[in-house]
Specification:
Two copies of one chain form a homodimer.
Chain A lengths: L2 H14 L2 H7 L4 H15 L4 E3 L4 E3 L1 H28 L4 E7 L1 H6 L1 H11 L3 E6 L4 H10 L4 E4 L8 E16 L19 E5 L6 H12 L5 E6 L2 H9 L4 E5 L10 E5 L6 E9 L5 H16 L1
Parallel strand pairs in A: 3-4, 3-5, 7-8, 7-9
Antiparallel strand pairs in A: 1-2, 5-11, 6-9, 6-10, 6-11
Helix pairs in contact in A: 1-2, 1-3, 1-4, 6-10
The structure holds a DNA duplex (25 and 25 nucleotides).
Chain lengths: 297, 297
Amino acid sequence: MDRLRQLHYFIVVAEECHFGRAAQRLHMAQPPLSQQIRRLEKEVGVELFTRSTRHVALTPAGEDYLLHARQILAAVDAADERARRVAMGMVGRLAIGCVGSATYSLLPALSRLLGRELPGVDVSFQGEMLSQEQLTALRQGRIDLALLRPPVDDATLTAMVLRRDRLLAAVPHTHPLADREELSVSQLAGSDLIVHQAPRLSAMHGVVLRLFSDAGTAPRIRHEVGETSTMVTLVAAGRGVAVVPEPTRALALEGVRYIPLIDEDAHVDLVAAHLTQTEEPHLLRALEMLKDLARQQ
Amino acid sequence: MDRLRQLHYFIVVAEECHFGRAAQRLHMAQPPLSQQIRRLEKEVGVELFTRSTRHVALTPAGEDYLLHARQILAAVDAADERARRVAMGMVGRLAIGCVGSATYSLLPALSRLLGRELPGVDVSFQGEMLSQEQLTALRQGRIDLALLRPPVDDATLTAMVLRRDRLLAAVPHTHPLADREELSVSQLAGSDLIVHQAPRLSAMHGVVLRLFSDAGTAPRIRHEVGETSTMVTLVAAGRGVAVVPEPTRALALEGVRYIPLIDEDAHVDLVAAHLTQTEEPHLLRALEMLKDLARQQ
DNA sequence: TAAAAATACTCCATAGGTATTTTAT
DNA sequence: ATAAAATACCTATGGAGTATTTTTA
């Protein structure tokens, strides 16, 4: 037994074509080396060497076996190394989902960071995903890491708050309030409001409605759109106003003013969520890096 | 140590996700199994399982390692099997050279036989090679087995007589002697003779010249050709007569008569030659089969 | 508390060492 | 005659067994 050791011995003997020298290289005596080779030959069922006292040479079967022996030893080392890299989170696949507003602020920095720190990890991004879509995608394993808005009410998922985004009113520059330094939600009650479609999927939809009800007014919803970029485009076209998280400022369209809302609770958290049970090292490392990144920004 | 055994244990534990059941399958007690897995993890430098008394599961690194562990064990078995097949002469490459006259009589049968008995051997043929060319090709390793005419005067080469071919006169049907049942060389003295080119490369060339000198006559050489088929074509065209080994009869061209020569030594041996030092099992097996084949024919 | 993995120890199989013999050039 | 592999025999490492403890769901 101990075939791997035998393979190692075999390779050295094959390279030296001399049991004595091979034993020296292996820091062992010659007789046990001869024995191990004999045992190997018996177990394989084939003569690997032709021996005389003056000359040792590989048989054709031995030549063939030598190639495979080297491959096998290399494969063992490679398997060890790979397992270590997996454990360190250096290799793996990571599909990251992201809500519209973080797509522009967080994703680029995260992408750069992951590319630099975990070059062996195959990262893919899916931007402009709605929060509820991402929760489903997490459970189904279509994404491994979600960047979304609360709430995350599911024990199988774990969420971590990355940062708190102020909410802004996006108004056309033609709007009567366009030049204000700040606004309250109640001041928007008289304007047409643009919101996200699919109230059950978009977290922002609920946040905005609650803001209005807290302010004691009802919104005048005129447009429902799929993506944040569409929403801002409609504002630029003067079709109404919208409530958006601060990072949306990155969409600096002509004719759009972003004005902070001063109301209590005029903010929304950005959280990172993943399967609670996960122990994927590369995901855990990515989470750590994400935490650092959020702290810096 | 004994990594291969550890890999085997590891695979079974990974399949069972239960040390007790795995130990049963391995016909051993649970404690030493736990120990070996612990040792493996220590040597690789990575936790392969997450354990609790109620649940054993692979870590991500363990999942990765499992794939490679299976591959490695399979590679060891495959290497053993392949070495055995090499030793049995079941795999290898075999380049066979052959003189013109045996190309038609021996090669087809040999090809069929090798294809049936040694399907794993990659056989290639080079027909219409001159004897001396083949000796050089053997020494240079361009061919492994030569089918040629004597002499083989080289200690590094070993030759085996396969059969003795009678020599025939190939004469045009318009020739005065075309209807004879048999001829002697001296009767050809007055006819134009077609021989092979390159007296130093073709063994037949020397054989024919010696026949004439033994008969006390000189040949009237009119044409020198490269291949036996060309030679017979010229005979068919009435350009002269030729002396050929009996298997050349396979070239049954219109207008050619083959007539046995009755002279002493009107025959030539066909021999198989190869490097004396060779121990390639597939070559040795091919030689055995060749011997049998020659005996049958 | 009960099932399962880990620990403690004991034993023995086998890898490795030393001394010697055999063999082929 | 001599260098080198094979054989014989001894030693000791470490793999496997039994009994027991620890752990957690």
